Amino acid sequence: MTDLFAEARELDARDPLAEHLDAFVDAPGVSAYLDGNSLGRPLRELPDRLAAFVAGDWGTRLIRSWDEQWMDLPTALGDRIGALCLGAAPGQTVVADSTTVLLYKLIRAAVDARPDRSEIVVEEGNFPTDRFIAEGVATERGLTLRWVSPDPVAGVQVTDIEASVSDRTALVVLSHVDYRSGALADMSAITDAVHDAGALMLWDLCHSAGVIPTELDTCEVDLAVGCTYKYLNGGPGSPAFAYVAARHHGVLRQPVQGWMGAGDVFAMGSAYTPGAGIRQFISGTPPVLGMLAMQGMLDLIEQAGIVAVREKSKTLTDLVVRAFDLELAPLGVRLLSPREATDRGGHVTIGHPDFAEVTRTLWADGVIPDFRYPDGIRLGLSPLSTSHAEALRGVFAVRDALA
């Protein structure tokens, strides 16, 4: 115990990102917040940002702010996320809607662009939203779902995809980081395998955006969707983002033909003509208020650099795995994440039959991980807001609750 905490203190003393820890709100009574992979902490500057918005952009400029800035906010903010986190050139990322709605738009647009193909490939353990939307689109379009069944800890491998795609495959939908185990998929190799079969590739980036450098353009990804309330700290219900590679602009046509996605919004045309480029994928009024909180987090990511964020993510999860080996494995706890930092994202999952009750105990004691059915606890470690000592306190709290 002493050696681990000494190691944690040393890691924190050497942490080049330690200066950013104070940028986040401290929750009273919480000694370890280990759920940043579900909902990021708010920044201390957020109340001032919200007050300035109410007093200025909304309260003073009123409807003029639409012309002055808000109409362009979905694409401007999308470009910033693309540049800082996604490896995406400008004009390919937009902030709009929820993850669910954007998944529907992109899945439907993708399969409609491959009318001679009849299958969507989906991982059977993927997050329910991804599976449910794929099922719904398959039903609408008379398509077949082909399920991939990878190792639950190692996650989807390129060999799984090579064995699943064919000349019938229209689209493959996968998560870059598995929401259960944290397994990190090989984006480049899998995307290549999908393209070799003539299909399109859609990546869910909900558990990688803001914590793992992603190279969408370099990997020649076709489509991607991600949320902003996890590692981008946009707050509960903050809007999602969609990436559509420039080569598909004017080819893919999204199915929710809303006013804001029209070519000339204020022409009030009698028929829908899609807007140019990524703007076509907007449908309704942009959620301006929901875009405020993430802007401060993007400032922090720009200061820190996404590569440095990823390096700290590795040291955090490595420390947790070592603590697991020493303190939790002897109690019958199972490691449900890959052991190597290069093979996992920003969270570590552990399993035990008593973890539903343990989670209730931890929450009551001010230690906040999350429980995933049937018997897993996820320790989500957001690098800019989590110290090594805090992560270690969480592991020892699990040990003590089990005892």
Automatic annotation (TrEMBL):
It comes from the Bacteria. Its EC number is 3.7.1.3. GO terms for biological process: anthranilate metabolic process; L-kynurenine catabolic process; L-tryptophan catabolic process to kynurenine; NAD+ biosynthetic process. GO terms for molecular function: kynureninase activity; pyridoxal phosphate binding. It is an enzyme of class 3 (hydrolase). Its cofactor is pyridoxal 5'-phosphate. Pathway: Cofactor biosynthesis; NAD(+) biosynthesis; quinolinate from L-kynurenine: step 2/3; Amino-acid degradation; L-kynurenine degradation; L-alanine and anthranilate from L-kynurenine: step 1/1. The keyword Hydrolase applies. It catalyses: L-kynurenine + H2O = anthranilate + L-alanine + H(+); 3-hydroxy-L-kynurenine + H2O = 3-hydroxyanthranilate + L-alanine + H(+). GO terms for cellular component: cytoplasm. Belongs to the kynureninase family. Catalyzes the cleavage of L-kynurenine (L-Kyn) and L-3-hydroxykynurenine (L-3OHKyn) into anthranilic acid (AA) and 3-hydroxyanthranilic acid (3-OHAA), respectively. This is Kynureninase. It comes from Microbacterium ginsengiterrae.
